[in-house]
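Shipment paperwork, digital attachment
Item: protein structure file
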Amino acid sequence: MSIPSNIAEGFGRHFAAEYVHHLRFSNGSNNELQTQLELGRRLGIVTEDEATVLIADVEEVAACCTAIVSLHKRRGLRQPGMRGDVVLDPELGAGLLEERFDLLT
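Attachment content:
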C-alpha cells in the first residue's frame, strides 16, 4: 500500500520535483516490501516460488519509478518554489506505473 500511496501523493502535488521526491520515497517502500517478502519466505509464510515472483514484480515497479525519475530529470527539473517550476506532465510515465501496479494486485 505504501508504494502506490507515495506515488499518488507526489502526483497530487502537481509539481515534477514533488512527484520525483515521492517516487524516491516509493523506492524506499519498495525495498521494505522486498525485505518483508524475504522474511516471509524464511519464516514459511510465503513459498520460495511466491517470493521469487513477487520480488520480481516489485523490482519491475522500482525500475519504472527510476525510469520516470530519469525522464523528469532530463526535462530540467527544478525544486518547487523556484522561478520556472516544472508543472507535472500527467502523461509522462503514467502508463508505465498503471501497468506495473496491475502486477501487484
